[in-house]
């Protein structure tokens, strides 16, 4: 696969991941009411389930990005290449775990409706499931922030994208990482600090769809492997 084809595929997956998770999360959040963790869940079960499935599509896309970028980064900086792959894998897994936790509110709400357990206990379990989803998301974002900084470092050093784009990504992922860590520590600033990194991923996705990755070490224009040893700089 040529660098251009890989780049265009990665760009499409970046946009797919953004739309899938954002759309899925919007569906989930538009469902239940705010009176309690389980309030309104059964009335919006289809919407919640559909949103959760969209969020799982994001996990598949995220994992695919890590796999596809590996042959592009590996000849240039092997450590960063594998770190990015691992970071994207951790992100995909933790987001999927969060979705499973989110879906647990459905059987809990059904149990509450059937009167099979004390309502207060079920509400508490529902709240724990929602908090578990939130923490899983933030851990996933920490992994993305760390691996994203390494990714953009290679983009900048090897001129895989225009320098201003790579610098935007470096700053965006760094701020993103700070925001995710702050959320885990109890400071609700993650959403605001995620904006630069989120916009960078959308812009990078569009850029890669238009131009792909340039040919270079390990990736010739026809997709054949170049005879270049991995850089460990």
UniProtKB/TrEMBL annotation:
Keyword Transmembrane helix in record: yes
Record-annotated membrane-spanning stretches: 50-73, 85-106, 135-156, 163-181, 187-210
Species name: Streptosporangium becharense
Keyword tags: Membrane, Transmembrane, Transmembrane helix
Signal peptide (residue range): none
Xref: InterPro entries: DUF4386
Lineage top rank: taxon: Bacteria
Keyword Secreted appears in the UniProt entry: no
Protein name: DUF4386 domain-containing protein
Pfam families assigned: DUF4386
């Amino acid at each position: 696969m040529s660098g251009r084809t890989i780049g265009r595929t990665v760009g499409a997956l970046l946009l797919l991941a953004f739309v899938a998770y954002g759309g899925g999360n919007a569906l989930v959040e538009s469902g239940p009411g705010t009176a309690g963790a389980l309030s309104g869940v059964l009335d919006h079960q289809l919407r919640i389930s559909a949103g959760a499935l969209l969020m799982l599509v994001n996990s598949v896309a995220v994992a695919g990005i890590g796999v596809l970028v590996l042959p592009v980064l590996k000849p240039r900086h092997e450590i960063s290449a594998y770190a990015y792959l691992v970071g994207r894998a951790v992100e995909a897994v933790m987001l999927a775990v969060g979705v499973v936790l989110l879906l647990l509110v459905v059987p809990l709400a059904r149990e509450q409706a059937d009167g099979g357990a004390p309502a207060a206990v079920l509400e508490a379990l529902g709240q724990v499931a929602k908090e578990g989803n939130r923490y899983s998301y933030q851990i996933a974002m920490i992994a993305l922030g760390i691996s994203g900084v390494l990714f953009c470092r290679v983009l900048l050093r090897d001129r895989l994208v225009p320098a201003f784009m790579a610098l935007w990504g470096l700053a965006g992922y760094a701020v993103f990482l700070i925001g995710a860590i702050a959320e885990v520590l109890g400071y609700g600033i993650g959403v605001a600090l995620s904006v630069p990194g989120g916009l960078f991923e959308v812009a990078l996705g569009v850029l890669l769809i238009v131009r792909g990755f340039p040919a270079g070490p390990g990736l010739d224009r026809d997709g054949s492997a170049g005879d270049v040893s991995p850089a460990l700089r």
